[in-house]
């Protein structure tokens, strides 16, 4: 089992490890299996993404656990979009949140495996289900939430409209908030932020100096997002 290295450089090597162990703030530990071989199989399509831990997921959960006390998450109703291997959602479920981890169908087997490794059905509250962005029926089945999580979802512009529609539906309460993280790869990230503003969302960028010290160079972004009412 490999201990995670909190580094921006070397991410590709970390993704080739079959298993990674994360020791996070608040004493939270998460062990995740990865499948880099499958993820590398199909170019720019979505059929095989989500099977390794992308650095943006670490950046997001490390920031959240360091910023808010453990009791902040207790009983919070959380939906994670594009949960992938499950790092963020699993960590918050360990702190008492009620977490719905969602992704595409092909990701669910590894996501369920990682959930089973880290969470106890008698102790933690969680669900794992498929969700295609914009699927109104599936979103209604998830119920109301207070927090939406999204790590490394912003890299294909053709899916931005569906992602925004999903955010609009899930942030149904004025008190609800989304936390998104992504790497600036030149794949439409600025356009996504512009679309958020155009759609009336209130958006706040977390200052780089508030992120983990290895990720303060400006390549990674964490957003607070609320729906405008």
TrEMBL record:
<protein>
    <recommendedName>
        <fullName>Calmodulin-lysine N-methyltransferase</fullName>
    </recommendedName>
</protein>
<dbReference type="Pfam" id="PF10294">
    <property type="entry name" value="Methyltransf_16"/>
</dbReference>
<dbReference type="InterPro" id="IPR019410">
    <property type="entry name" value="Methyltransf_16"/>
</dbReference>
<dbReference type="InterPro" id="IPR029063">
    <property type="entry name" value="SAM-dependent_MTases_sf"/>
</dbReference>
């Amino acid at each position: 089992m490999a201990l995670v290295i909190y580094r921006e450089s070397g991410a590709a090597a970390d993704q080739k490890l079959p298993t990674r162990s994360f020791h996070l703030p608040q004493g939270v530990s998460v062990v995740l299996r990865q499948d880099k071989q499958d993820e590398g199989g199909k170019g720019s399509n979505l059929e095989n993404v989500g099977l390794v831990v992308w650095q943006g997921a670490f950046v997001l959960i490390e920031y959240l656990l360091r910023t808010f006390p453990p009791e902040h998450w207790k009983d919070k109703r959380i939906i994670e979009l594009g949960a992938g291997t499950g790092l963020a959602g699993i960590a918050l479920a360990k702190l008492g949140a009620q977490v719905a981890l969602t992704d595409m169908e092909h990701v669910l087997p590894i996501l369920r495996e990682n959930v089973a490794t880290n969470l106890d059905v008698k102790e933690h509250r969680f669900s794992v289900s498929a969700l295609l962005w914009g699927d109104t029926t599936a979103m209604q089945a998830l119920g109301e939430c207070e927090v939406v999580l999204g790590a490394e979802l912003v890299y294909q512009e053709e899916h931005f409209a569906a992602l925004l529609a999903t955010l609009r539906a899930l942030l149904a309460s004025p008190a609800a908030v989304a936390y998104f993280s992504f790497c600036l790869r030149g794949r439409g990230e600025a356009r996504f932020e512009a679309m958020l503003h155009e759609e009336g969302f209130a958006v706040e960028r977390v200052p780089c100096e508030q992120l983990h010290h290895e990720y303060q160079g400006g390549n990674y972004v964490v957003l607070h997002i609320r729906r405008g009412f």
